[in-house]
Write a structure and sequence with these properties.
Blueprint (H helix, E strand, L loop, with lengths): L6 E8 L7 E5 L8 H10 L1 E9 L3 H16 L6 H8 L5
Antiparallel strand pairs: 1-2, 1-3
């Protein structure tokens, strides 16, 4: 049984310091050993989209996000609304 609290906070951002590629960070899944580094990277990047995905079927949602990152890093121009449409019912 999935609860409303079973959700994962994430952000899609464009890295500005190194590669200029789009990346994602799943904040609520970070562990102590990588939390500070990953949050700092996201904070230094250019924000693109953030939100919550449901914990239920999260792997499916992550595959969608990976596909969006591939498109963005391939040069395709997407709007944040397209992220919402692609994730659809996976958003919490």
């Amino acid at each position: 049984m999935a609860f409303e609290s079973d959700k994962i906070m994430f952000e899609i951002y464009k890295e500005t310091e190194y590669t200029g590629r789009f990346k994602v960070v799943y904040f609520t899944e970070l562990e102590d050993h990588n939390k500070e580094t990953e949050i700092n990277r996201a904070m230094m990047g250019q924000h693109f989209y953030d939100g919550f995905i449901k914990g239920f079927r999260k792997e499916e949602a992550k595959e969608i996000v990976d596909g969006l990152l591939t498109r963005l890093n391939g040069g395709e121009v997407l709007e944040p609304k397209e992220v919402e449409r692609a994730l659809g019912s996976h958003l919490a």
